[in-house]
Amino acid sequence: MTNILKWLILIFITFLAEHFITIDGIHLNFSFILVYLFVIDYMFPEEEQKKVYPSEVLPILFFPAIGFIEDLFQGIIGPAIISKTISGIGLMILAKQIFFNWTEIFKSLVIFCFTIIDEGLHTFIISYFLNIDTTPLKIFKTSVLQGLMNIPAALLLSWRKP
Amino acid sequence: MIKRTTVFIVIVICLISFFLISYQFKGHLIIPKIHLYNLISPWHSMQKFFNDIFYIREENIKLKEKLYNLILQNQSQNSLIEENQRLKNLLELKKNRVDVVTIAEVVARGSNKFLNTVWINKGTNDGIKENMPVITFNGLTGKVVYTTGNYSEVLLITDPNFSVAVRIERTRVEGVMTGAGTNKANLKYIPHDEEVLVGDRIVTSGLDNLFPEGINVGVVKKIDKKKGVFQYIEVIPYQSDIKVEEVAVIKKYHD
């Protein structure tokens, strides 16, 4: 129950921050931090013996749910569901690989790359359907900025995990 | 690796989402957008209350309102003088009056990542209605697309969904200007035989019955006559998206 409440508060604060914080007119992608935190929390539990092989049902429900909430604020249901699900599954596959050493640098790189993947997918879907005249430079600038901003926030929130 | 069932579920989620997106863009399904702004409006109201205690602020707003009216009157008078000269006093022009509804401050960027919108701290309680034009000292900024009691969302001039009837000030050629999604806009429906030069000033024509005539919109940046039936004209708006801090909401042309 405490865990659910913790996640609800975290989701609310994250979307509130995403809604109101902009840099140079660019909205940030804090919602990906939720996906990252969930994967870290779920795939690397503190008591290892509790979950030897964690189920994939909960993440597969969580990722689209986060995407759905994000889409509700955008007014179009679908793009964020797809991007969050795909990036979340990708992150989960990465977390399952035992040969990675999750150092702070590796975590930073993961957050940065997956934020770019998430934003790239989202932008691609939206610009394909909306036919928005956007430039690759603008997409690159937005994704890189979002990736860089997510690194400190996600590292702080997942301090000493895994 | 992940299970086959998981892969199957992911594919199903993606397919359902694609169908949902298609239906929404065709207009078969409309899902109301959630505006988080209403949640923090009490905080902003309190902030506004304390700010308004200072008398000087009120006086400042009134003075700015007067200044906007004077600038707009001046613009319309210049337009009338120019037109009168050109027609050699043969035509009598109608009076072009623009009224400021209220002055507002930009408090946040819009929540949608792909729409260029901003939120202003005035709403229906201050007399703002949907589709009212929004201007700054520099020129046209956008129009109101959504209003609540104390806040309104303004669609900016550079958004692809924004369009305004305009004319080239020098040649009086009429066209339609739409946002390009970036910090530029496009001037459309100008035939190839019309002369357009880089640096030509674009002003509103008033033909859309929404934006009053003679408001500064932008300046021609690039012309390409090789593309399509009409000329491809890029316009740089006078009012930059990022620098919008304070705006004036004005009445619609025929209100």
Number of helices of chain B: 3
Regarding CATH, which class of the largest domain in chain B? Mainly Beta
Query: How far do the termini of chain A sit from each other?
Result: 23 Å
What is the count of structural domains of chain A?
Answer: 1
Broad structural category of chain B: alpha+beta
What would your notes on this structure say?
The complex is a heterodimer of chains A (162) and B (255). With 162 residues, chain A is mainly alpha-helical. Chain A is built from 6 helices and 2 strands; from the N terminus they run αββααααα. In chain A, a hairpin with a 2-residue loop joins strand 1 and strand 2. The longest helix of chain A has 27 residues, at 104-130. Chain A starts with a helix and ends in a 5-residue tail after the last helix. Chain B is of the alpha+beta class. Chain B folds into 2 domains: 37-156 and 242-250, Beta Barrel (Thrombin, subunit H), CATH 2.40.10.340; 163-237, Thrombin, subunit H (Beta Barrel). Chain B contains 3 helices and 12 strands. In chain B, strand 1 (100-109) and strand 2 (117-120) form a beta hairpin. The chains are: A mainly alpha (162), B alpha+beta (255). Chain A binds chain B through residues 15-16, 19-20, 22, 24-25, 27, 56, 60, 64, 72-79, 81-82, 85-86, 89, 92-93, 96, 122, 125-127, 129-135, 138, and chain B through 1-3, 5-6, 9-10, 13-14, 17-18, 20-22, 24-25, 31-34, 36, 39-40, 108-109, 111-114, 160, 180-182, 241-242.
